[in-house]
Design a protein that fits this description.
binds fe (ii) ion, binds 2-oxoglutaric acid, Phytanoyl-CoA hydroxylase
């Protein structure tokens, strides 16, 4: 049976919703559901799923109120930039539709060169405040060091007291309609360490399925390993030094360090689906350093700004990428 066409003549991507990525509208055959897990499952089962899928999506791991408290602090800080719709509560994070989205570009995905300062001079107030939020106590000392998260990772990995939350993190804001992060796996940016880090992707607020959440390539962690082996081979063949080959932006790679800007074409090239979901405040996805992921463009029906952070954990008793032992800054070369 042919799929019903929507009013615009385009087929919804998933559960009746249209999911847009940097290179267009995902087709239904390119999309599946992210597998949900419960933090109350036996840790062996959580570990089994993490190893099998390259990620584990833990519903309600963090107390919802802790996440919303951070969301509120974030938007109270950013409100003077005019980002929020007048007469709305900061915790709701509703973008003022009267704004030009170009003046409110996203941290982490908004700059053409990946990790540079996004936007022009009219974006400066917003961008400067969004950067300053990285250094605020409620973020750096409280949210990033949440004991429930660290404890889960210590149990998952068996690292125990050696579990170390690394300092550099990106507190990302995806304003409606702006560019989304392209296709990548995290080890590309962590090559000075062993490929055993765990990333916790933490949505800071509820994220509708069309609201710009993270998407994972099905079995992407096995493909990521193959791609990394290929980069290593190319680096050797082209005579790069070990140091050069560890660079995420070396001559064999895109200038952004990404595998591709466009998830749609990438899914077709490798014949794999993107796994998607909606998120609630408190949910966390733990993913392996080879898990291939990207995000959708935020087209939330209520103009809710998507905020999220990626917190990384390593075994502090093993070699890890110490370039990350610093707070995030634009153009920090990592
Ligand atoms: O939040 C995003 O858009 C990207 C996050 C990410 O790449 C990660 O958590 O590793
Ligand atoms: Fe990532």
């Amino acid at each position: 049976m042919p799929h019903a066409l929507s009013a615009e003549g385009e087929v919804p991507s998933f559960v009746g919703e249209k999911l847009y990525v940097n290179d267009g509208l995902l087709r239904p055959d390119q999309v599946g559901a992210l597998r949900e897990s419960s933090p109350d499952m036996p840790i062996e089962e959580i570990r089994r799923r993490y190893n099998e899928d390259g990620y584990v999506f833990l519903k309600g791991l963090l107390p919802r109120e802790d996440v919303l408290r951070a969301r509120q602090a974030y938007f109270e800080m950013l409100a003077p930039s005019g980002v929020l719709k007048p007469q709305t509560a900061p915790v709701d994070g509703i973008f003022d539709p009267a704004n030009d989205k170009a003046d409110y570009p996203g941290i982490g995905a908004g700059a053409a060169d990946g990790n540079g300062k996004p936007g022009g001079s009219t974006a400066e107030k917003f961008v400067d405040l969004a950067l300053a939020a990285h250094y605020a106590d409620w973020y750096k000392e409280t949210f990033c060091k949440h004991p429930v998260l660290k404890n889960m990772i210590a149990r998952l990995t068996g690292w125990g007291d050696n579990t170390l939350g690394i300092r550099r993190s990106l507190l990302r804001n995806n304003t409606p309609g702006n560019k989304a992060i392209g296709v990548h796996y995290d080890q590309i940016f962590l090559r000075h360490g062993e490929p055993t880090s765990v990333t916790a992707w933490v949505p800071m607020g509820d994220v509708a399925v069309t609201g710009g959440g993270l998407i994972y390539l099905e079995n992407g962690h096995t493909l990521g390993q193959e791609v990394e082996a290929d980069f290593t081979r190319k680096a050797m063949e082209s005579g790069l030094t070990t140091e050069e080959s560890k660079n995420a932006f070396n001559q064999n790679m895109l200038s952004t360090g990404l595998l591709a800007d466009g998830p749609l074409e990438y899914a077709d090239t490798f014949g794999r689906r993107w796994l998607v979901t909606s998120y609630n405040a408190g949910d966390v996805v733990l993913h392996s350093p080879y898990a291939i992921h990207a995000s959708t463009i935020n087209y939330d029906p209520n103009n809710i700004i998507r905020v999220g952070t990626d917190l990384r954990f390593v075994n502090g008793s093993r070699p890890w990428d110490k370039r990350w032992d610093k707070d995030y800054e634009f153009n920090d070369g990592v």
